[in-house]
Design a protein that fits this description.
transferase; LipidA_mod_glycosyltrf_83; glycosyltransferase; pentosyltransferase activity; globular; 60% helix; cell membrane; alpha/beta
Amino acid sequence: MRNIRLFWGLLAGLTIIRLCLAASVPLTPDEAYYWVWSRNLQPGYLDHPFMVALWIRIGTWVAGDTTVGVRLLGPLSVLPGSWALYQAARRLLPGCPWPQSGLSAALLLNATLMLGLGAATMTPDTPLLFFITLFLYTLSRAIDPELTSRAALPWWIGSGLLLGLAFDSKYTAVLIGLGLGGAVLTTKRLRQQPGPWLALPGLCLATSPVIVWNAMHQWASFLRQGGRTGDWHPARALQFLGELLGGQIGLATPLVFILFAAGLWACLKRNRLLAWLALVPTVVFVTHAFGDRVQPNWPAVIYPVLALAALEAGWRIRWAVTSGLVITMIVCIQAMFSPLHLVPHRDPVLRLTGGWDEFSRKVAMQAKAQGATALAAEDYGLASRLAFTQNILPVTGTDQRWHLFHLPAVKAAKTVMVEEQRHGVEAQEAATFCRKVRGQAIRCYIVHGPDFVAGVQLPGRS
């Protein structure tokens, strides 16, 4: 009982820290982009499904159009997600003593930089991890050998629904579904039950909004994500594989990554279900890396499974959890207070988030003084960040992706175009503005205008 109280006390403390981080660090351009989505809720978007937009909409309804409003549900979701993983260990790890196994699995997941820092931001991975942990809990109940086939049915249906909600968060959830399918087909006891097959209607129901939206928009999102396989460079396989390995060591933190790898190997020998759930996505990502870059956050979908699998190795987790939490705290402190005055170009947080407020207001005020009625930007991140940061002028997005929104069109607005300055490129009759931190420029932008630009007006902060 004492360990359980300490565990929940630690999680409560981590939640408070994540909320502080969410409130103090400015939004990244991608987060601002998802905030634009939340102003125009629909069943799907070009880049991802709708769940991240829905979560932001709920958060901003509670806390307003602020950084903490955009990210609110991220830190809060970790508590029920950790509880679900804690409970899932009871049946998914039958050879490990519970509740110690549940505490260890939840601690390992919380010790990763992926969750530790990622839960304080709002990206599609945030709801994805939440629904995957809930899915693992309902799946653990569904496979409970003490339940009859009839008693397990609601848990199988719930597993299908939750896996569908994970898919509504990010398409990589389909890899967990394929892993589950492999486990069912190769396990006689599961294959002969009606439950796994009756989970399919729940899965289809939950994913139907995204599928219908794609069908109504020429399968735009599916083609965009599936089209990544067309850019294939096998000659760079070693580079891509090295980036994949390095990215996972960094996001899992080194000692936790070693435990994840050892646990996956152990599951291949004695835990068929977890082996299937983890191995299918792993094989897909490794195979993809033989010809194209795998973004470091893509394997996040496997992390809850690997947190459970790691315990099958039978190794102690104390130093892995401690080192992971220490690394995460160092990154959080640097993100909030910047005690190490790194050159902004070498600080990944400052590079994405620094200097937007002053830059946006300066650009908007000067544009308005020159008679402009709107700002325009083609780059989605720049347009979204300008829309979120200032409310002096409306922002017009000129990229084709904006036409998949039902936002008001601006066809005759007197606008100025804002675009990132490229090295060696100078524009005539244009002003240059820079995002700065501590007096040092991070990125510089060229502002053309005023001119007439056709586009789609993005919502500003209310």
